[in-house]
Amino acid sequence: MSGRGKGPLAGVRVLDLTSVLMGPYATQIFADLGAEVIKVESPQGDTTRFIPPGPDHSRGAMFLNVNRGKRSIVMDLKQPAAREALLRLAKDADVFIHSMRSAAIGRLGLDYAALAAANPRIVYANLYGFSRNGPYRDYPAYDDIVQAASGIVDLQAKLSGGQPTYAATVIADKVAGLTGAYSVIAALYAREKTGRGQEIEVPMFETLVSFAMVEHLCGSLFVPPQGPPEYPRATSEARRPYKTSDGQIGVMIYNDRHWQNFFDALGNPEWSRDPMFENMRSRSQNIGTVLAKVAEVMETRTTAEWVELFRKAQIPATPIATLTDLLHDPHLEEIGFWDQRETAMGTIRFPGIPTAFSDTPGAIGDPGPALAGDSVAVLRDAGFAEDEIRTLLDTGAVQQDEGVEG
């Protein structure tokens, strides 16, 4: 497999019992960075397999992307033989990661105590909706639910005339996935110093509340509060791409130097001497009025004229790009961001690894695996005898893709 054995996580083995997007995104990062990721699926398979479009009914585009570089083994973990086989796999694993609710993983007999008994060095990561220590522990959670519960939907409403909306990306899944990834890597680093594994909990709800409150806790950081939990610049209805005379543009006139350069480029008009533009504090206190005045001025020139002016003035600005534009973006093309290759499923294009390592660069692996495509190979690599493998297959405790030779 083209991504394994390279990168800073080369030599790390991950047992991945996650599905949908949060957990698979975390383990995709591990695979990109060189870890061996064994995706343990139920006989039904990860539900994202069946989201079109895709080259066949069980490998849609999102699945192929977020599960790249992994191997798939199908285990019916309700069978004791499958559970025992998984615990044998865990003896040589560095990481065990799942995205089931706490009660569900406990019913399977695969909680941290069981895995630590098999391998005291294992890093065990729980990724789920709500912390198991609170009253929401048994609530089901998906991205939309966590966006609604964490304040993200309410924040979106402030920018859409009071109409609650979801962010147009699965932000809860991806932020929690990133949090899971760095938490596991931190635990692996701690293990190198102590020799001991540990258990990690990454709940989506708490992760998104923490994420939203980085800037929005604001005046409520203080007790008693000095203001509401809201960062006014981010929630101002005037905070939106500016309309130009022929289109729209994204502009961030932020610090004092930016504002002075902006006014100098405009010839320092009379309104630029208004005290509310004087410094960060006065601008923040009048942010709606400030942004509205800029919006009025922006309509006087074309997008191209503004981009040229802002680039000369060293003010952050860019035309509004569509997702289609990004597929042909000159910067992304020049740095080789898009990983395009020929596969058995045709030409595939992956987004590249955004981070760069000077000594141990990662590599993108093959598209997401066929369901149960690697079951027998995974067991053989773990030292299972041929008669043991045959028994597991015959009983259905483990399943193998019929299109793959055993």
Describe, in plain words, how this protein is organized in 3D.
Strand 7 and strand 8 (248-251) form a beta hairpin. The protein folds into two domains: 13-211 and 334-399, Crotonobetainyl-coa:carnitine coa-transferase, domain 1 (Rossmann fold, 3-Layer(aba) Sandwich); 242-319, formyl-coa transferase, domain 3 (2-Layer Sandwich). With 406 residues, the chain is of the alpha/beta class. The model has no long low-confidence stretch (mean pLDDT 95). It is elongated. The protein contains 18 helices and twelve strands. It has a seven-stranded mixed beta sheet, with helices on both faces. Strands 7-8-9 form a three-stranded antiparallel beta sheet, with helices on one face. The protein has a two-stranded antiparallel sheet with strand order 10-11.
Topology-level CATH name of the largest domain: Rossmann fold
Provide the β-strand percentage band.
5-15%
Mean pLDDT: 95
CATH homologous superfamily classification of the largest domain: Crotonobetainyl-coa:carnitine coa-transferase, domain 1
Report the radius of gyration as a whole number of Å.
25 Å
CATH architecture of the largest domain: 3-Layer(aba) Sandwich
Walk across the major sheet and give the strand order. 6-5-4-1-2-3-12
Instruction: Enumerate how many helices there are, as a single number.
Output: 18
Structural class: alpha/beta
Which residues form runs of ≥5 with pLDDT under 50? none
Span between termini:
18 Å
The largest β sheet comes out as:
7 strands, mixed
Helix-strand pattern: EHEHEHEHHEHHHEHHEEHHHHEHHEEHHE
Share of residues in helices = 25-40%
**Domain module count:** 2
General form = elongated
Total strand segments: 12
CATH top-level class of the largest domain: Alpha Beta
Oligomer class: single chain
